[in-house]
Structures are given as structure tokens and as C-alpha cells.
Design goal:
mainly alpha, 88 residues
Length: 88
Amino acid sequence: MESQGILSSAPAARPANAITIGMDFLRQAWAAWWCALLTRRARRRTATALRDLDEHVLRDIGAPDWALRESEALRQMDYNRRAHWLWT
């Protein structure tokens, strides 16, 4: 007696062709871009929130170096903007 083949209940995989491979690449590239965008937004919000704090306070709370640099840059931009109006 011959045995019958067992049918798998798993769905059949789609064959990989150039279109599906290209779409996977685009999906991964878009996900990486979106993640980078969210990271830049979060860093900007953090720097804006820390702008009013002094450098010594930031060091006391253990802020990373990039936050120190960003907050100093934002303070300098505000200072230069205000100073420009005083000169004219």
C-alpha cells in the first residue's frame, strides 16, 4: 500500500522575484529613514527643553555631551539674535 503525502497547513511562500525583493529593500530603507527622523526630532525636543538650564546643572544631572553642545548652541543663537536687534 502506498502512503499518501501529507498536506501542510502552512501557507505557501510567495516566490521571490525582483519586484518583491525591491519592495522589501524599499520598505527597510523607509523604516530606517523614519527611525532616523524620529531620533532627530527627539534630540531637538530634548535640546530645546534643556536650553534654559545652565551647563553646571546639566553636568550635575548627567546630561550627555551632545545635549550640552546643543543647548549651548541654542543659547548662543538666542544671544546673537537679541544682540543683533540691540545693534540696529
